[in-house]
Amino acid sequence: MSRQISSLLAIAAVCVTLAPAPAFAQAPKEKPVDCSQVKCLALTFDDGPGKYAGTLLDTLKKYDAKATFFLEGQYVNSRPKYVKRMVAEGHELGNHSYSHPDFTKSDAATIRSEIQKTQDAVKKASGVEPKLLRPPYGLVDLQVSDIATEFGMPMILWTAGSEDWASKNVDKIQEQTLKVAKPNGIILMHDWVKQTVDGMPALIKTLQRKGYHLVTVSDVIKDEKLEPGDAFPLPAGWEN
Ligand SMILES: [Zn+2]
């Protein structure tokens, strides 16, 4: 090895040593919940981070509940501090496009760009990249599935909705969610609906009293062995 190269290597080694610690806080390690042994439920919040994400995060923290946020890239860019907090507090992040177009009516280039811009925004805000895709409106077709495969992501839909966006009523959101909650269910909610966030302490307390562990989507799908491009749960008319 020439002296020039070895001194360059020495400089490189010093640079590596002096590299600053990662700026993003890591979620504390907690013992994993085994959803094949206990009752689990995954609450999922779409289209955010919404205006009320901070209040929602406070509530989730207070009751030691985890959630999954399917984020819209445009709001990741306008509210990055919530995204950073979601990761730091142990929640899961998913990709819900950049500006919420119907992917089944979009061309391939648009879909790729919508997904990539959101991956980039989330990475910039939080240091992590989503591993799950929820296409806008939960609408999927073969083209969307192929592109999800390219990105290495399964497509996560929901087993039931809270219908929060339609009722915008605290009691109705609670009633509907309790009606459709089931072990390993995936519930669709929105953190831009004020009534969802307002009613969350009471809803979480009731779910926990019924024995539910509120966990991330990855916790409830662990045994499904999903491949990139798979949709879960399967939309009507789809087969494995
Ligand atoms: Zn949406």
UniProtKB/TrEMBL annotation:
Any coiled-coil regions, as ranges: none
GO molecular function: hydrolase activity, acting on carbon-nitrogen (but not peptide) bonds; metal ion binding
Keyword Metal-binding: yes
Organism, as annotated: Nonomuraea phyllanthi
Record protein name field: Polysaccharide deacetylase family protein
Source organism phylogeny: Bacteria, Bacillati, Actinomycetota, Actinomycetes, Streptosporangiales
Source taxon at top rank: Bacteria
InterPro entries (UniProt xref): Glyco_hydro/deAcase_b/a-brl, NODB_dom, Polysacc_deacetylase_ArnD
GO biological process: carbohydrate metabolic process
Membrane-spanning residues: none
GO cellular component: a single term: membrane
Entry keyword set: Hydrolase, Metal-binding
